[in-house]
Amino acid sequence: MQSTVTFDSDGLKLTGTLHVPEAMAAGERRPALLVLHGFGVNRASGTSVAAARLFEQWGYVALRFDFRGCGDSEGTPGHLLCLDQVADTRNALAWLATRAEVDPARIGVFGHSFGAAVAVYAGGEDPRFAAVISSCGWGDGERKFRGQHAGAAAWARFTAMLEEGRAHRARTGASLMVPRWDIVPIPEHLRANLPAGSINEFPVETAQSMFDFRPDERVGRIAPRPLLLFHAANDSVTPSEQTLGLYARAGHPTDLVLLDDIDHFPFADTNPRAKGVLRGWLDRYFPALPAGA
After folding, report:
1. Integer Cα distance of 83 and 65 in angstroms
2. What's the pLDDT tens digit per position in 149-178?
3. Contact at 8 Å (CB) between 173 and 244?
């Protein structure tokens, strides 16, 4: 069962889709998972929809929502700052904990790509998250961008864009707007995975916020709560070394999974291996139902 919901985040109204399993007894409370979308897309992205539907089918309550400035949520379109998204995630958890269908002590967070970085950071900051799942995420913004803008010439163009943005704001008081692909390049064959309504132009401050963002510095605080770090071994968007870096700094229990036959959108396609890994990890560390139920 799905329904459209709204909740408050720092005075802004955010919009989400709540998934509730049909087979729930009266008064029953289930574990829940927040689903965080990627860079400049929205809750209708293929990964967000696929993940939320899987969680619902497997017996969880799930909430996929639009970050501020994205989709149907309030906020300046495209003005995305990492710490704002962390705040949205924590506020979504607080709202979800009030739902009659949800066990407030058993709320986890699943994030993909940019959303994965936010999930790890939020999980490290907020002990209310009972489990954290990172799909094709990243831990160090500067190192990530160096991998995405490989080579001296590409890196010089990217850093010049950041400097031009700072100079433009100092000179005019306004943000310099730049194309999506100048911030995060995505191969042509993967761009169809972006849903309708995706944002194609951002202020340079968004890129600077990502550059400065360091989930690496928070990942160790998630333990002893369970953490799954999942990545495509040959990811053509976010370098897999980012997840390896997170694993090196994580506590236990943490599982690291690299799959070779997928790319950056593993849960948006029909790959059964990715789904099997996710289901197996949930059954082990964050089950929807008690053993034998």
Report:
1. 16
2. 999 999 999 999 999 999 999 999 999 999
3. no
For the chain, give every domain's residue range.
Answer: 2-148+211-285
Whether residue 272 has a cis bond before it, omega within 30° of 0: no
pTM above 0.85, yes or no: yes
Architecture category of domain 2-148+211-285 in CATH: 3-Layer(aba) Sandwich (3.40)
Cα-based angle 196, 199, 200 (whole degrees, multiple of 5): 110
Per-residue DSSP letters for 80-100? Answer: --HHHHHHHHHHHHHHHTT-T
Cα 118 to Cα 35: distance, rounded to the nearest angstrom: 11
Residue 53 burial (10 A CB sphere; 0-12, 13-18, 19+): middle
Transcribe 147-178 into DSSP letters.
Answer: HHT-SHHHHHHHHHHHHHHHHHHHHHSSPPEE
The size of the chain, in residues, is 293
For the stretch 80-107, pLDDT in tens is 999 999 999 999 999 999 999 999 999 9
In the structure encoding, which two tokens stand for residue 173, read together? Answer: 């008081």
Of 124, 133, 122, the C-alpha closest to 48 is: 133
